[in-house]
Amino acid sequence: MIRAVLTTVLVGIALAGYSQHEVYVSTTGSDRNPGSRAKPFATLHKAQQAVRSRHGTVIVWLRGGTYYLAKPLVFGPEDARKPSEAVTYQAYPNEKVRISGGVPLRLNWQQGADGMQRAKVRPGVLFDQLFVNGDLQRMARYPNYTPTAQFFGGTRADAISPDRVSRWTDPTGGYVHALHKHEWGDFHYRITGKDSQGQLQLEGGFQNNRRMGMHDTHRFVENIAQELDTLNEWYFDKASQTLAFLPAPGVDLTTALVETPQIRHLFEFRGTAKTPVTNITLAGFELTQTLRTFMDNKEPLLRSDWTTYRGGAVLLEGAEHCRVVDCYFNTVGGNAVYFSNYNRNNEVSGCRIVKAGASGVSFVGDPNAVRSPSFEYNDFVPLAQLDRTPGPKSNNYPAQCRVYNTLMHDLGQVEKQSAGVQISMSQDITVSHNTLYDLPRAGINIGEGTWGGHVIEYNDVFNTVLETGDHGSFNSWGRDRFWHPNKKTLDSIVATQRELVRLDVVKPIIIHDNRFRCDHGWDIDLDDGSSNYHIYNNLCLNGGIKLREGCFRTVENNIMVNNSFHPHVWFTNSDDVFRRNIVTTGYFPIQVTSWGRETDQNVFLDCASLTRQQQAGHDLRSVCAPADFVDPAAGDYRLRDGSPAFATGFKNFPMDRFGVVSPTLRSLAKPVPLPQLIILASGETDKPQEFMGMTIKNLTTLGERSATGMASETGVLVLDVLPQSLLYEQVRPNDVILACNRRPVANVRDLQEARMSAQIGRDFNLVLFRNQQKQTVRVLLK
C-alpha cells in the first residue's frame, strides 16, 4: 500500500518535471557498489552520502535483513530536502528490515558443574541488555523477575538490607531500582561500592523532579553476581570479560542468536530553526535493541514531576516536515521517538511501539524559551520579578506536530516516569486516533501549560497507572508562571491577578472524542493549576473526571460510566464550566466552596444523587434519567431516542472512532475491557448485587443478623466471592462490610459510592464484621 502511494506521488513529480531516483541497500551488498538494485550498498551511511548528490525525489530501498548500526545515522542540514526532492528510507515491499543498535556475538559456551553456561567476550563490548533469539533476558536480580508482580516485575523491602548486601562480594556496577516514596514515578541508582560498615554507596536518584526518596517496599536490585540463580538470568563480569547465563530448557546456545545493545539512538535528525533538517521519511522498519537510558534521565522539566533524557531510538531536533511511518519499535531501551526543541510539522503515524524502556513519543521544548521558568515544585519567581509577556521567548520548541494512528503498549519497562505520549514546553501538538494501554503511568501526559493549543482526539487509552499512583489515563499539570506552591498565596494571586493564568497556556487545550479507562486513578486528571481546557465528547469508563485548582475549563457533553465528577480545591473565580455531562452518581468535591461559572444541565443516572446536589443549591436545571444506553455491553453508550437527558442539551457522539484506524493495527490491538454498568442501589433494596467479583446485599433480616452475629440490621452482607475477584483472599461469604475507605457503609449504595470515590492510589480498606469482631483488610487494586 505504501509503495503504491509513493509511486503515485513519484509519477506526479516526474510529470511536473522533477527527477526521481532509487538507491538500494542490502546486508549482502558492498559500499564499493553503485547502490543500484543489482549492486546495492551495504550500509545506510553510504546510502546517505549517495543521496546527498542526487537531485529530485529519492527512495532508499532497504532489502530484508538485520542492519547493525555501530553509530546512529545522523541527518544534518546538509541532508535537508525541498518538498520536490523529499527522501524516504524505506523497507522493500514484503521484506522485513530490522535496524538494531546491538551487535551479534559469536561465543564459545562452556557449561560448568553448576549448570551455568559461560563464555569469554571480546574486549570493548558493552553489556547492558542481553537478547537471545530476539527475546530480552534478565540481568541477575533480587527478587527474581515475576511477570505477574505489579511493580517492576517483583520488589522486596529487603532488597538492600544489610543482610542482603553482606552476601555480595563486590556489588560495584549493580543497580538499585525503586518507586518514588509516594509512587509518583521512580528512582534509579548505580552502586559504586560498599563501605567498611557494609552500606551500599550509590549515585543517582535524580530521575524524578520531586526528590523525596525511594519507596520503603517497592525496590529491587540487578547486575549482582551472587543473585544469578534462576533461568533466563545473566551476569557479565567485566574484570574477566566473562558472560554467565542460565538459559531456559530447549535453548541451544551453539545455534542461538545472541545480541547486546551498544548505542542509545538509531536515527538522529539534528538541525536548528535556522538550518533545519527537512523532508526526510523513515518507513516500514523494525527498530530494536538500543541501550537503556535511566541513568541519563536527569533534566528537570519545569515544575511537573518529570525529569527527562533528550533522546530516543529516533531523535528529532531542528527538523521540519519529517516523518516516522509504519515502523515497529520493538524493545528499545529508552524512549522510542523524541522531539527535542525546534520541530515543526513532523509526524509519527502508523507505528507500533511495544516494550520500550521509557516513553513512546515525547515532545519537549527548550526551558530557555520559557519566561520566568521554575523547575522544582517548591520553586517560584516573585510576582515583582515575573515576566508578564504572554507566550514563549523563542521558537525553540516543538509545534504543529502530530502522533496519529499509532499503537503503543507495555511501555515503561524500566522507567516508570513515562507515558505513551509526553508533551512539555510545546504548542499545537495533535494526538489523534492512537491506542495506548498497559502502561505504568499516564497514557497521555501534559507536563505544564506552555504553550497550549494541543488537540487530544479519538484516542483509546486504558489499563494505565499500573505501577504508580495519583494519576489518570490522561494526566496534566499547570504549574505555570502564576502557580505558587503555597495554596493560600496561590488563591490570592488568582483572586487579584487572574490574567496571569493564561500567560503560558496562551491557547486552549482540547480533549474530545476519546475513550479513557483508568482503574487506578481518574480517567481524565487535570492536576495542580491545569487551565484553559475544553473537554467534550469523551467516554470515561471508570475513573471519572478530576479538575484540581485551575481556571477557564469547560467540561461538557462527556459520559462518566460508574463514576462522576471530582472537583478539588477550586479557586473562587475559576470561571469553570461543567454542563451537559452524564454522571452515574453525585460529585466528589474536596474543599470546594465556589462552583465556577456554571455547574448545571447535567444528567444523573441516579435520582437520589441529583436530589442531594440540588438540596445543596447546585444543578437546579439538571435532570435524572435512566441508563438507557443503546448497547453498553458492546461499548455503545449513546442514549436511545426519547431519553430525558436530551432536554439538557446533551448530544450523542460516535462510539466507533476511538483508537487506531489501520486494519493491521486494529487487529493487533487489545480491546478495551468494558465495565459492567453499576446502577446505584436504593438504600432499601434487598436484591443481590454484583460488586467487584462478589455477590452482596443489604443485611436486612433477623435471620441474617443472627447468622452473622451482628447487633443490628445494617451493613452489606457478602453472599459469594468469585475466585477471580480481587477480594477473594480477603473477604469471605457471610462477612458483613461496615466501612470502605473510612466511609461508613450501611447499605449497598454506600459501598458503591465509597468505591467510586476511591480514586487516589491503588488500594482501599474495608472494615468487616467476622466471627463476632471487626477487622480491617487492605484491598490491592491491580
Task: Walk me through the structure.
The chain is mostly beta strands and 782 residues long. 9% of the residues lie in helices and 32% in strands. The protein contains eight helices and 66 strands. A 14-stranded parallel sheet has the order 1-2-5-23-28-31-35-38-41-44-47-50-53-55. The longest helix has 14 residues, at 2-15. It is globular, with a radius of gyration of 28 Å. Mean pLDDT is 93; it is low at 1-17.
Q: What is the gist of this entry?
A:
The protein is mainly beta and 782 residues long. It contains eight helices and 66 strands. Strand 58 (629-631) and strand 59 form a beta hairpin.
Record the strand order, biggest sheet.
1-2-5-23-28-31-35-38-41-44-47-50-53-55
The structural class is mainly beta
- The proportion of residues in beta strands is 25-35%
Q: Could you estimate the helical fraction of the residues in percent?
A: under 10%
The count of DSSP E runs of length 2 or more, i.e. the number of strands, is 66
Poorly predicted residue ranges: 1-17
Chain-averaged pLDDT: 93
Distinct helical segment count: 8
Instruction: Give the N-to-C terminal Cα separation.
Output: 41 Å
Key terms:
single chain; 782 residues; mainly beta; 14-stranded parallel β-sheet; 66 strands; 32% strand; disordered N terminus
Topology:
Blueprint (H helix, E strand, L loop, with lengths): L1 H14 L4 E6 L18 H9 L4 E6 L2 E4 L4 E3 L11 E5 L5 E4 L1 E4 L4 E2 L5 E4 L10 E2 L2 E2 L1 E2 L1 E2 L19 H4 L9 E6 L5 E9 L5 E5 L9 E9 L10 E5 L4 E4 L12 E4 L5 E4 L6 E2 L1 E4 L2 E3 L10 E2 L6 E2 L5 E7 L2 E3 L2 E3 L6 E8 L2 E3 L2 E3 L6 E4 L33 E2 L2 E3 L2 E3 L11 E4 L5 E3 L2 E3 L6 E3 L8 E3 L2 E3 L9 E5 L10 H10 L12 E4 L2 E3 L4 E5 L6 E4 L2 E2 L4 E3 L5 E4 L2 E2 L4 E3 L9 E3 L2 E2 L14 E3 L2 E2 L2 H9 L7 E2 L4 E3 L4 E4 L23 H6 L20 E3 L2 E5 L3 H7 L7 E6 L14 E5 L2 E2 L3 H10 L5 E8 L2 E8 L2
